[in-house]
Amino acid sequence: MKITDLKPEIVWKFFYQVTQVPRPSKKEGKMIAYLEAFANEYKVACKKDAAGNILMSKPATPGYENLETVILQSHMDMVCEKNNDTKHNFETEPIETVVDGDWLKAKGTTLGADNGIGVAAQLAVLASDDIEHGPIECLFTVDEETGLTGAKALQKGFMTGNILLNLDSEDEGEIFMGCAGGKDTQATFHYDAEDAPENRLYFRIDIKGLNGGHSGGEIHKGLGNANKILARFLLLMMNDGIDFNLCKMDGGNLRNAIAREAHAIIGVHSEDKETIRIKLNNYTADVENELKRVDPNVQISMESAERPEKQVSKEWATKLILALNACPHGVIGMSHDMPGLVETSTNLASVKMGADHTIIVGTSQRSSIESYKLMVANQVASVFKLADAVVTQGDGYPGWAPNPDSKILKVAQDTYKALFHKEAKIMAIHAGLECGLFLEKYPNLDMISFGPTMRDVHSPNERLKIDTVGLWWEHLQAILKHIPAK
Question: Would the pTM of this model clear 0.70, i.e. be above it?
Answer without folding.
Answer: yes
